[in-house]
Records
---
Amino acid sequence: MGRVVQDGEPLWLREDRAWAFALLHVEADACPECRQPWSEATDRANEFSYSAELIRCHACATSARAVRAHQAKNKSGSDGLHVQIERMPSTD
């Protein structure tokens, strides 16, 4: 939180611990995919309370194309394959 810890001071103050526990509580109640609160997102009363928009991540799309190209050329599959994505310099 920006506090400079002095010699002899504890790393975590009571308020720091309270914020950390609050964050744990919020994260524990979140859907792992959409991050909406379980208590709201699973309530039947909210079945039609959400909207969704499809957005293409161009970095992920490039990654998927690279993996497909690799799989087409290498019949050994892609087990253990990791994709490093880097933004190319702008041509402007």
---
Amino acid sequence: MPPLPLVYALILAGGAGTRFWPASRARRPKQLLPLLGGDPLLVETVRRILPVAGGASRVLIASGRHLAEPTAAVLRDIPPENLLIEPAPRNTAPCIGWAAARVARIDPSAVVMVLPSDHHILDVDGFRAVLTAAVASAARGVITTIGIRPTHPETGYGYIELDAAVSSAGPLDTAPLAVRRFVEKPDRARAEAFLASGRYLWNAGMFFFRAGDMMDALRAHQPELAAGVTAIAAAGEPGSEAEREALDAIFPRLPAVSIDHGVMEHHGSLAVIPGDFGWSDLGSWQSAWELAAKDPLGNAAPDGTIFVDSHRNQVVDLRSAGAPKRVIALVGVEDLVVVETDDALLVVPRHRAQDVKHVVDRLKTRGDGELT
């Protein structure tokens, strides 16, 4: 049996989460919030992957400069030099390339897991089993991703097309399958056709590769980006002043491209591990309601909320601990989301939850930046 590879994890933690306004703000995005109770989503993400990554010293966190302090505050066990703080937003390929270049200097055969910071996983053991299978596939030299078995014709996700159908129910085999192509978010008719064919999985944005393999792929498909991240990694030790100077000089000029468009769509041989472990990307208040504990009438709310002839609502009270006690009551309404913070109140039908991002746009247009 071949020896297990060295494994690193890169957690992408730079998102804005505008669909979770007013809880989520530019300096307090959703990965830093305990949207489902307990710890912030980012903390839960790190906790889930630690047994596979082999400890906090091999967990890298990619985030923006404006989030450096709050991110470090919730991840006190992660070494400071493991925070890859981007001086400018450049999409996912540059930060993934930077992490790959840094790991490749240590061991080009080490496997890097790239994972989002703000998803919810119900079956943690099942998730870790799929991660382990993806790591094993990547260790054989094949860039690998995880695809989620779809449960409905979702139009908000990208898809991964396979050469053959997978089962629509029952346990899934974790053997890697060949990827035919990545597909952008479809309309409803195409999503229904995808689901009926059985040959499509949801793209959850998780990627696995040996550090050296990713650098080879970047040199083939994004040579300017590859040269830039190689120079950053070679400038000095992780977290050193020399690395920061190179980062400030080079990173903002790198091509702004996603890893999907920049590499995966052009790479010749990719594998996918099918997964079914209770995954949600927590994309809106609607998905938060779906995962929340509810009363017999489908209402999710803090203790003390009053419901009269009201069904399937969600109430979220995020006022600070010192705020005056206030009773929230809903009468004769259905399928609403009500979110209260110290400085804002949101009321929206659950089926319009994706449109909350437009509130943020309006606030920016009228100059209320402190509310975004």
---
Amino acid sequence: MAASAKNRSLARSLGLGALYIVLLGYAALVILPMIWLLYTSLKSNREIFASAWEMPRAPHWENFVYAWVRAGIGRYFLNSVFVTTISVALILVVSAMAAYALTRFSFRGNRLIFYAFLAGLMIPTQLALIPLFFLINGLRLLDTYAGLILVYIAFSLPFTVFVLSAFLRTLPHELAEAALIDGCTHTQAFWRVMLPLAQPGLVTAAIFNFLGIWNEYLFALVFISSERLRTLPLGLANLLIVSHYESDWGALFAGLIMVMIPTLLAYSLLQGQLTKGITVGALKG
């Protein structure tokens, strides 16, 4: 018995050790390219090609200045902040109301509407580009933020409604009923009681939508043509083309760092809420 318990303990320790090694290897694969990208953005063109893996002899902070000011990354950055913030906010509000109605109330067509949202997850982006282009053009919203934001909302609703529906089902409906007894309307019960309780699910949906919209390129390329309205992925692609002609690769790497920073900050600040939202949904779903 003692030998068997000792063998099980040894096997468990070996298994945990192997798991830690795999996780450390994966962490290295993710973190090391970021570190390399960071110190490469501080190199001159000569250093980038002559000593790709070495640290810069002296940091060239002017790469960031060039990328932000002369290459217009600053303007594109603010454009992306505006589009992403408005899009994510509207997506969460509309999706939360739709998910609450679908999970809280029983009515004819409830399941049909829910499955219609799920069907939206199966529509390929490329397949919808041409009809969407004619639709947005017919609404006179081509080359406007409004048109781009509407497209982002439409394509993000299915996933967000699915995620929030799964999370709202885990919340006790007795709380909403207690609010109704206290004199709240259904709308007040939703905004004052149920929505604050759904914060982990909202944060989880917000992070996924933020990552998708912040890095989205295809829709922005098709629906935005004015340089002043370009989002950050479009500006970065333009900087890549310019770098081929001007041979300013340091500025390109600096632009990549600027794209990464908001994503890393958002995940770092909201990591706890994201983990909580996923865990609660997994345990109670």
